[in-house]
Specification:
The structure is a homodimer of 421-residue chains.
Chain A: E1 4-14, E2 20-31, E3 34-39, E4 49-60, E5 62-68, H1 83-96, H2 101-116, E6 120-126, H3 131-144, E7 147-151, E8 153-154, H4 167-180, E9 187-189, E10 192-193, H5 201-214, E11 218-222, H6 226-235, H7 242-248, E12 257-261, H8 265-268, H9 270-273, E13 278-282, H10 284-289, H11 297-302, E14 306-309, H12 321-338, H13 348-360, E15 377-380, H14 394-404, E16 412-415, E17 418-419
Parallel strand pairs in A: 1-4, 5-6, 6-7, 7-9, 8-10, 11-12, 12-13, 13-14
Antiparallel strand pairs in A: 1-2, 2-3, 4-15, 15-16, 16-17
Helix pairs in contact in A: 2-3, 3-4, 4-5, 12-13, 12-14
């Protein structure tokens, strides 16, 4: 498919070092899915479709490094509980419903439609243990044009009966799921052991083999909550840390690996975090709602740990990564004030950089308008907020939009150079 | 004006003790501005207008105990700073613009329109030092039908020159403002010394006299930020605490008094907080954005300290008190986890109770549907969120709406029994 676009708009991004790059009233040339140039004068090309988005604020598409599609239906409910009770009382019973393809169909259509209209162009997604409904989710995302990793979840212990797999069946179903996804273009499978308490040693070993043999990425949870950490310690007394429990089962790098949360990783497993394959999915809203704590984002930055943002619906209440940006700023301020003044708060710009290039690195490098980058972008209409303030910079416009209207549907969206709307 | 309404809707409130009262598909009879009854069967009255709001969720109108109307235009901007630098760099220059009545007119119309369509029916508002533009704000609010206290701000030291009053002129202008407001029905004046650093001892003494002689309420700021607290100590070395500085100038009760923030009051002035005239305006969003900290809301509850919620725009980014409710829950969880496990987090219901009856007590007792209460209410349409989840309680519907769509315009609003839309 050969296709070219010239987009006229106001462009904001950060560069590789995290500095702001503002290009008001400029022209982005996209060809065959990739960025060719971003210039202040209109490029002289005859075969490109011209898109006049004058006045709209265009930013690189954002990455959601951690989201549970199967929890989206109960977002914003039952927020007065902590992680482990919340899992048992609400999350597991809800996820069990996805055995029924009719429920999954209804729910995943809503999820896909809302994700499509958000600022997210890339996502790493947990479904449930159910192969058929997970495949359905993957198909909806593929049809919508979103670039995503989708994981059939593996769980063979410590869950409700309806959500507990036979260990061998869990492996077989995972292999079957991978096989059925081989012709997908934008949506790919990801190995998804839920977390240590949900997976037997044998299952973890098998999943690690599958990931390495097939070069598939991995996603799981790490050091989210103190009670969870104690539980992992009792389940794996030989491991010196939660991360070490993954490591002992071959699930600590070798392939790109997302570990969601890492609230306690600075104390629990600092050495292991400096691994080029490991990506932290920082989920500030969820970690607040479930009373988990505040992940040390500044420490990750200072130590060169890969990091993106995650919505973690439904521990988080919204798919909006623009909202996750301001949430990351907010909790970093509280952490600085209340916990540890060695680590200064994140600026808005830093949090944006984490949400765009930070998470985008997991997808082979997206999140900016560099020449040759896959063209992921969204256009925001920030004109609707009434104000008497004039003459804002593009960064100020973006900051205000992220604080005031993070969940407003985006006006246009392009993924890998394909214009979705 | 004699007017009566029967409203059919789903009603949610908390009772005086904070227990949830759910009345699905019920009938509220309002007459002459007050609640007559809330019943499951339709009251047999012939002279009342019937309002069929079936399926809408009706809650008591909420109170915003602390908001700066003059900062609304820059909400969501410049959030990477702390209080004192933020005041000098952005807030004071913006407030100086309100000397121009044309700017004030444009800005206060936007503020009033947005407040009108929020869930807030009562508000305690800071304007600026400028008498004419403050009066304009009061007029806009009166015309819109919102019940509010509006304060002409007093500042005669430690500000930018454009925002520094001559001390005697400050008093004279305050008296003039009070006089000009004497025929207002729903909007009333409130004595508003900005905070200790902005007011000379003489000015504080004079304002205390005016408040007591005329029985006017007072609003100011207290113990928001650590640097601010140190500054107050250096300005008032004879005072043992920030609150004591107000007390020494006659500004600690005797009339109903709102003190915004009180982040450090549990440590700094615990004894003084137990005063029936003092109301804490808890402003979780602002205290997060300005890196101030987290106020000890549970301690206030346990010690019988009056408390409501404040948006504190533009330290806070939104006028939505529904959002302030979820913010109060969130920061209470982080405070519990990170600071002090003696004080368990606020539940959603508790935070709602604070936002409705808690703040409403400052206005003589609103925030519920008790017989004889002034009829303040808003109707929320929570049907627009797509979800596959069924059979929610009214409290669950409200929780979800507060988390997912707190800034959505309300569908209907009534203040003191007057239907605004």
């Amino acid at each position: 498919m050969s296709s070219a676009y010239v987009i006229h708009a106001d462009f904001y991004q950060t560069d590789r070092e995290g500095m702001a790059l503002e290009m008001p009233s400029s022209y982005l040339l996209v060809r065959d899915g990739r960025v060719v140039s971003l210039t202040t004068s209109r490029p002289d090309v005859s075969d490109a479709t011209f898109l006049d988005w004058s006045g709209l604020l265009v930013i690189p598409g954002l990455t959601d490094l951690h989201v549970h599609a199967s929890q989206y239906q109960f977002r914003g409910l039952w927020m007065d509980e902590e992680l482990l009770e919340w899992l048992n009382a609400h999350t597991f019973p809800e996820e069990a419903k996805y055995k029924e393809i009719s429920y999954a169909s209804q729910a995943y259509r809503i999820f896909t439609d809302d994700l499509l209209h958000s600022a997210t162009t890339r996502a790493a997604i947990f479904a449930t243990i159910h192969e058929d409904s997970t495949l359905l989710l993957a198909r909806y995302l593929e049809e919508a044009g979103i670039a995503a990793y989708v994981g059939k979840v593996n769980m063979d212990r410590n869950s409700v009966p309806e959500l507990t797999e036979d260990s061998e069946a869990s492996v077989m179903s995972t292999l079957s799921f991978i096989e059925k996804m081989k012709d997908f273009k934008n949506v790919k499978p990801i190995i998804t052991p839920r977390f240590i308490p949900s997976c037997s040693d044998w299952l973890l070993d098998e999943l690690a083999c599958i990931a390495k043999e097939r070069g598939l990425p991995v996603q799981s949870h790490l050091s989210e909550n103190q009670s969870e950490g104690e539980w992992v310690h009792s389940l794996c007394p030989e491991s010196v840390s939660y991360a070490d429990a993954y490591r002992r089962h071959g699930l600590w790098g070798g392939v790109p690996t997302i570990m969601a949360h890492c609230v306690y990783s600075m104390e629990a497993e600092p050495g292991l975090m400096r691994n080029e394959d490991i990506f932290v999915a920082h989920c500030p809203d969820s970690n607040t709602n479930l009373s988990s704590g505040i992940a040390p984002a500044r420490w990750f930055l200072e130590n060169g740990v890969n990091m993106g943002l995650g919505s973690d619906v439904a521990g988080g209440t919204t798919l909006s990564i623009l909202r996750a940006i301001t949430d990351a700023v907010k909790v970093s301020k509280l952490r600085w004030r209340l916990v540890d003044q060695r680590f200064r708060p994140l600026s808005f710009r830093e949090a944006f950089h984490i949400a765009s290039r930070g998470g985008g690195a997991f997808f082979g490098g997206v999140g900016g308008f560099d020449e040759g980058m896959e063209a992921d972008l969204v256009a925001l209409d920030d004109s609707v907020r009434k104000t008497a303030i004039k003459d804002l910079s593009l960064e100020e416009r973006l900051e205000r939009h992220a604080y005031l209207a993070p969940e407003e549907p985006v006006t246009h969206k392009m993924v890998k150079g394909r214009l979705l709307f």
